[in-house]
Amino acid sequence: MNTEEKYRRAALKEAEKARKIDEVPVGAVVVRDGQIIARAHNMREHNGQAMAHAEMLAIQKASRKLGTWCLSDCDLYVTLEPCMMCTGVISLARIRTLCYGTPDPKGGATESLIRVKEIRHIGTYPKEIRSGLLQSECAAVLQTFFRAKRAAKKQQKTTADLQ
Which residue among the candidates 55, 81, 118, 137 is catalytic per the annotation? Predict the structure, then answer.
């Protein structure tokens, strides 16, 4: 297993933690000098906060650990293409490299819906964006989660209709 795959697998483990607590299964890790310095997964439902995305929480933890908002020597590995909010924070935190597993055609703000690198003055960071490593595994975690959610909702409706 190469180093980048190791970090992506660590992000997948975080996504699995989110799934186990019924959060949308997205995980993220921040890496500096070859070491994971922060890990996080989605916590919107548990924290009751719209901004409790995996990327945001991992960046907050990394900033606290390093004592700075500027993470220009750090890389972020996340299982899903970041949304507009997270992409903004990634840029403002000056994350050097963003690596994500699977695109988000409904909300991705790095390459799918919005191409942040093409926006003047905003697209300075991250310096590099890479996608696709472990894409099928990252996508499968999300697909399985949402299929189960839809099935449960359908079952509830069926049960309610029978009563």
Answer: 55
